[in-house]
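User: My collaborator sent over this chain with a note saying "see what the structure looks like." That's all I know about it. Can you take a look?
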Amino acid sequence: MSRRVLVTGGAGFIGSHTCVALAAAGYTPVIFDNLCNSDIRVLERLRQITGSTPQLIEGDVRDEALLARVFADEPFAAVIHFAGLKAVGDSVADPLTYYDNNVRGSVALALAMQRAGVNTLVFSSSATVYGQPDHSPIPEDAPLRPANPYGRSKLMVEQALSDLHRAQPGWRIALLRYFNPVGAHESGLIGEHPQGKPNNLMPFVCQVAVGQREKLQIHGGDYPTPDGTGVRDYVHVMDLAEGHVAALMHARTRAGLSILNLGTGQGASVLDVVRAFERVSGRALRFDIGPRRPGDVPAYWSDPSLAKATLGWRAGRSLEQMCADSWRWQQGNPRGYD
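Assistant: Without extra context I'll predict from the sequence alone. Here is the result:
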């Protein structure tokens, strides 16, 4: 039986860490990536960590002819699908590009899998499908009301894959909704390498600590939270990677559709992250607290109990470890893979 797993977007932040987790579990990851938001130099870093350089197929998931050739060449046990655009602000400014890439690309991938007889798929969804929650922790059956085109594109793919499973129950599909991935591999060899202005908190914190930015801009200090700053569920990227492998192993044993949160089940505020990072780095971080950003919610975090019950998975790495691993990556790679 094949142990090859096609990882779309596998050269990216979460995808590359998942390749490490796949290799550790005895699978052979094959990366499919158009490198629009990733770096080919990650392949050498993966070789240093795992002892083997993953095969890279450079291409776009919307390229139906290329996908047909990929699935015809060698058998795959499954697909883990990360490839997609993910910047909320960009999705608001250019929604058609997001729907084209995220929705059309996912449908093209599923069609290629269907034609090749590969029916095991782990889809990288997002907690943005919940929008502004009624309460936290957020269970999987909470209302789905994404507030931006990025979140709506993820929900559309979830709905398409759910419809596919209803029509063809032999499919084995896991839809993983995760919260705020941070951290890096403990080796410091791979980590988050944002191209241009970062879209989330930890890269900003790291860039302030290493001197690339003068100070951190915190958006909102008057939320109804313990310290007034926004609260989120930060989860270590290696915990997430191992969650994808656990979902893959579960899906391979039985047909069905699983919808699961991957998170810690605990909230941490922006200032909690700043203080934890200061402790592990030994550096004081300058910051300003400004006005709230439109559309930001005060607090949300996951209820990950279903993933624990279904997969036997839980996030085990602490906020301090997330910060320590991010800092190790940033110190060793102040300009990413450059």
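A starting point for your reply to your collaborator: Residues 4-184+233-262 form a domain with the Rossmann fold fold (CATH 3.40.50.720).
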